[in-house]
Design brief:
α1 packs across α5 and α4 runs antiparallel to α5. Helices cover about 75% and strands about 0% of the residues. The relative contact order is 0.18. By secondary structure, the chain is mainly α.
């Protein structure tokens, strides 16, 4: 399970990012330019790109976390980079939750 799948599953009543995408694709085409000021295809493409970036940042974050704990020569560099990666990772996760929340019901525990 990817980082995006875990994120979407945690916050919404879907089991994966692909299931969320299917719900978004079901929305009528006119909704997107009227409400979001972008085409449906553009919105879905940007969402897929965001998912890819989140998954990549997740991998980089885990690597930096491991390196910062290892006591190696690169520990100082990894620790310094960890904060920047974490900030970007959190921003992109928040953006994903917001975008998906426009189309998919949130879990009742939120």
């Amino acid at each position: 399970m990817t980082a995006v799948d875990s994120l979407v599953k945690k916050h919404f009543k879907v089991s994966s990012f692909n299931e969320a995408l299917k719900k978004i694709e079901k929305k009528e085409d006119t909704y997107f330019p009227d409400t979001l000021f972008v085409s449906k295809a553009s919105f879905i493409e940007k969402l897929k790109q965001l998912a890819k970036e989140i998954n990549e940042l997740s991998d980089a974050y885990k690597t930096a976390q491991d390196a910062s704990k290892s006591g190696s020569i690169i520990q100082g560099f990894a620790s310094a980079g960890l904060g920047a990666i974490q900030k970007e990772y959190i921003q992109k996760r928040k953006a994903m939750v917001h975008h998906v929340s426009l189309f998919v019901k949130k879990n009742s525990n939120e």
